[in-house]
């Protein structure tokens, strides 16, 4: 049997007391999530952390009001019922996944949390027939709507245009350091360093399959080497370049892609057709590198063109000359 299958309650089967208990536990969970966001962001994005800290206090206040309502109507003992006990109830992303979310993704996740809660209560209120339960669910939906408005107020208070711009710039810089820079280095290495062995093999043997195998081996080998080198030489703690395994993956994958780009055409049996396509792919790769350097690294276009396109063309010519010699 699938774990949990057949053990969840339907929302329509919950009593008013259980609905109130579910709302209490949900508000408590959301407060914890917002505090986790604040803790995660406090060092690098203090303004956004202050917003989430304020939102966690709002959730605490909602929970306090709900507990008071439960105490008045049903007494002090609150039934244990949580999201995972109710079929179809909206789920929250596990908190530990916040480590893999960008700043903008975390902001979006928080907005989605409030929209989900409000929408759920509104739909539930429409489906019940008991007047008291419908009023209760409507009140909870209104509380979530108020919370969204309060979140906007907190964002305006703690996260003005200047602070938000500074944090967005910091997030962009971190993205460049962690993903773009090592990925670009890998793409350059994979595209350029494999040119000579692939085209030397091609013109020496005139055999597309052999050329493809050499290109495949060179690309994968270079990707593994670049990936491990990037991950091992800097743990990111002092340099601030981010997780070493993320940088290693970016560098290794892009190195492999850079080499495979002009190796894959040699799956075509005809030598000259494969070679013509491979040469076109090479120049597409080199111009793509120029664009990335100019777009993300602010390298002047002319300088990037001379460094990448001219350098790659020289390596390509060297491979052809060696193979044909």
Keywords summarizing the entry:
disordered N terminus; mainly alpha; 325 residues; elongated; two-stranded parallel sheet; Ferritin
How many strands?
A: 2
Strand count, sense and barrel status of the largest sheet are: 2 strands, parallel
The SSE string, one letter per element, is EHHEHHHHHHHH
| Rg result | 29 Å
Number of domains: 2
- Overall SS class: mainly alpha
Distance between the termini: 68 Å
How many helices?
10
How would you characterize the overall build of this protein?
The structure is a single chain. By secondary structure, the chain is mainly α. It has two domains: 9-159, Up-down Bundle (Ferritin); 173-324, no CATH class. It has ten helices and two strands, in the order E-H-H-E-H-H-H-H-H-H-H-H. It has helices at residues 16-41, 46-74, 103-127, 131-158, 161-193, 195-205, 208-233, 244-261, 271-296, 301-324; strands at 9-10, 86-87. A two-stranded parallel sheet has the order 1-2. Helix 2 packs antiparallel against helix 4, helix 5 packs antiparallel against helix 9 and helix 5 (161-193) runs parallel beside helix 10. 32% of the residues are buried. Residues 1-5 have low confidence and may be disordered.
Please specify the SSE layout and strand pairing.
Layout: E1 9-10, H1 16-41, H2 46-74, E2 86-87, H3 103-127, H4 131-158, H5 161-193, H6 195-205, H7 208-233, H8 244-261, H9 271-296, H10 301-324
Parallel strand pairs: 1-2
Helix pairs in contact: 1-2, 1-3, 1-4, 2-4, 3-4, 5-7, 5-8, 5-9, 5-10, 6-7, 6-10, 7-8, 9-10
């Amino acid at each position: 049997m699938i774990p949990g299958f057949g053990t969840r309650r339907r929302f329509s089967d919950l009593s008013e007391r259980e609905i109130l208990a579910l709302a209490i536990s949900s508000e408590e969970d959301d407060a914890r999530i917002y505090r986790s966001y604040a803790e995660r962001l406090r060092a690098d994005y203090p303004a956004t952390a202050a917003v989430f800290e304020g939102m966690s206090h709002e959730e605490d206040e909602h929970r306090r009001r709900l507990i008071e309502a439960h105490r008045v109507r049903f007494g002090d003992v609150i039934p244990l019922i949580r999201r995972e006990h109710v079929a179809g109830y909206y789920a929250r992303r596990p908190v530990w996944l916040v480590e893999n979310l960008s700043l903008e993704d975390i902001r979006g996740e928080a907005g989605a949390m409030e929209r989900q809660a409000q929408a759920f209560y509104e739909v539930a209120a429409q489906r019940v027939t008991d007047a008291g339960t419908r009023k209760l669910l409507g009140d909870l939906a209104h509380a979530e709507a108020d919370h969204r408005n309060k979140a906007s107020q907190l964002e305006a208070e703690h996260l003005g245009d200047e602070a938000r711009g500074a944090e967005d710039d910091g997030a962009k810089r971190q993205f460049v350091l962690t993903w773009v820079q090592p990925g670009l280095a890998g793409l350059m290495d994979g595209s350029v360093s494999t040119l000579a062995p692939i085209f030397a093999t091609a013109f020496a043997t005139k055999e597309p399959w052999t050329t493809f195998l050499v290109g495949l081996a060179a690309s994968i080998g270079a990707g593994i080497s670049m990936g491990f080198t990037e991950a091992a030489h800097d743990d990111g703690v002092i340099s601030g370049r981010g997780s070493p395994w993320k940088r290693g993956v970016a560098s290794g994958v892009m190195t492999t892609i850079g080499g495979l780009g002009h190796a894959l055409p040699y799956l075509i049996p005809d030598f000259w057709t494969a070679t013509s396509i491979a040469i076109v792919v090479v120049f597409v790769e080199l111009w793509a590198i120029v664009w990335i350097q100019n777009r993300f690294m602010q390298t002047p276009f002319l300088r990037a063109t001379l460094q990448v396109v001219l350098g790659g063309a020289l390596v390509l010519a060297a491979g052809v000359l060696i193979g044909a010699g």
